[in-house]
Design brief:
Layout lengths: L1 E10 L3 H19 L1 E7 L4 H7 L5 H9 L2 E6 L14 H12 L3 E7 L12 H4 L3 E7 L11 E3 L6 E3 L6 H16 L4 E6 L5 H14 L6 E6 H10 L6 E4 L1 H15 L8 E3 L4 E3 L18 H13 L4 H16 L3 E2 L9 E2 L1 H16 L1
Parallel strand pairs: 1-2, 1-3, 3-12, 5-10, 8-9, 8-10, 13-14
Antiparallel strand pairs: 4-5, 4-11, 6-7, 11-12
Helix pairs in contact: 1-10, 1-12, 3-4, 6-7, 8-9, 10-11, 11-12
The structure holds 3-isopropylmalic acid and magnesium ion (MG).
Length: about 350
């Protein structure tokens, strides 16, 4: 039997509700798959600010590095919105990503056939789209130095720095090419090389790296054009690779195209650590009301079983179970159309669990 050590950081808002459902699925998949699972939970985000005065403690940062995988719910909420930038819940997430060195963020987005009508895009354009954004996660303008606000009055100035060195571009590029190799072998590198020096370097390094992956078709696009093309012809895309901020923006665009941000899981991978989280936020407006869609959190568990436990049999059963419940017409509020029965978070979680059991026998 293999072992799997998972640290759970439920966080704020709907985070605890969706992680509860995801953990039930993880437990059952591990039981069925002969994996000895050990689970530990820690405070994170606003919950950690309230309990410990910081969005993440050093002890939790260190514990996270030792775990095989970390599952995160969501962070932030109105209660903590007035704190200065360096004390906000989001700072805990950025510190965690940095400390775990999880530089490669995989954000798959696909339009599930039964949800074709939920997408704001016309069905004839969007039907069957299935792509993945590979976002650089621990560099770029999110972390570049110098960063500050200084001065007084009209001379007050805010500065951030967009910087990538060649090694950072190479390592995210490799993950993207490898990801494309396992899919339809098409990689689009998204940059702003027409304006920014750092993006000129990005394009040059990606092009050079592409020579090592002659089986993968590499293209380049400026980010503004990429945003437009993703809406106009989403089915043409397979794997996109881009920097931290462009990836943040394009992945929300991708989420909207699927019909609900409640459907996007993610994996953030480093050399040693892995962090899994739904792309959606803490949704304070529906928190504590059992209305949240747990599918993104549940599919984040599938990504954990796929990438960390290397158990594609178990991850496949979970992805399949999600397809099954959607095909059965089961809907949480974010997906429901007029007249649909609306399931609670727990009911949707239980439905997926039943399908996982049916698939794993
Ligand atoms: C995301 C979020 C985060 C980001 C925030 C919460 C810091 O938007 O994971 O996409 O900007 O990376
Ligand atoms: Mg974002």
């Amino acid at each position: 039997m293999s072992n799997l050590d998972v640290l759970v950081l439920p966080g704020d808002g709907i985070g605890p509700e969706v992680t509860t459902e995801a953990i039930s699925v993880l437990k059952r998949a591990c039981e069925k798959g002969g994996i000895a699972l050990s689970l530990e939970e820690a405070d994170f985000g606003g919950a950690s600010i309230d309990a410990h005065g910081a969005p993440i403690t050093q002890a939790t940062l260190d514990r996270a590095r030792l775990a095989d995988g970390v599952l995160l719910g969501a962070c932030g909420g109105p209660k903590w919105d007035d704190l200065p930038t360096d004390k906000r819940p989001e700072k805990g997430l950025l510190a965690l990503r940095e400390h775990m060195e999880v530089f490669a963020n995989l954000r798959p987005a696909k339009l599930f056939a039964p949800l074709a009508e939920s997408s704001p895009l016309k069905a004839e354009r969007a039907a069957g789209f299935d792509f993945i954004v590979v976002r650089e996660l621990v560099g770029g303008i999110y972390f570049g130095k110098p960063r500050f606000i200084e001065g007084e009055g009209a001379a007050r100035k805010g500065v951030n720095t967009l910087v990538y060195d060649e090694s950072e571009i190479l390592r995210i590029g490799r993950v993207a090419f490898e990801t494309a190799r396992k899919r339809r072998k098409k990689l689009l590198s998204v940059d702003k090389a027409n304006v920014l020096e750092v993006m000129g370097l990005w394009r040059e390094v990606m092009t050079e790296l592409g020579k090592e992956y002659s089986d993968v078709e590499l293209d380049h696009m400026y980010v503004d054009n990429a945003a437009m093309q993703l809406i106009l012809r989403p089915t043409d895309f397979d794997v996109l690779v881009t920097g931290n901020m462009f990836g943040d923006i394009l992945s929300d665009l991708a989420a909207a195209a699927t019909g609900s941000i409640g459907l996007l899981p993610s994996a953030a991978l480093g050399e040693k650590c892995a962090l899994y989280e739904p792309v959606h936020g803490s949704a304070p407006d529906i928190a504590g009301q059992a209305k949240a869609n747990p599918l993104a959190a549940i599919m984040s568990i599938a990504m954990l079983l796929e990438h960390t436990a290397k158990r594609s049999d178990l991850s496949g059963a979970i992805y399949g179970a999600v397809e099954d419940v959607l095909a059965d017409g089961l809907r949480t509020g974010d997906l429901a159309k007029q007249g649909d029965k609306v399931l609670s978070t727990g009911e949707m979680g239980a439905a997926v669990l039943a399908k996982v059991e049916a698939r794993l026998g």
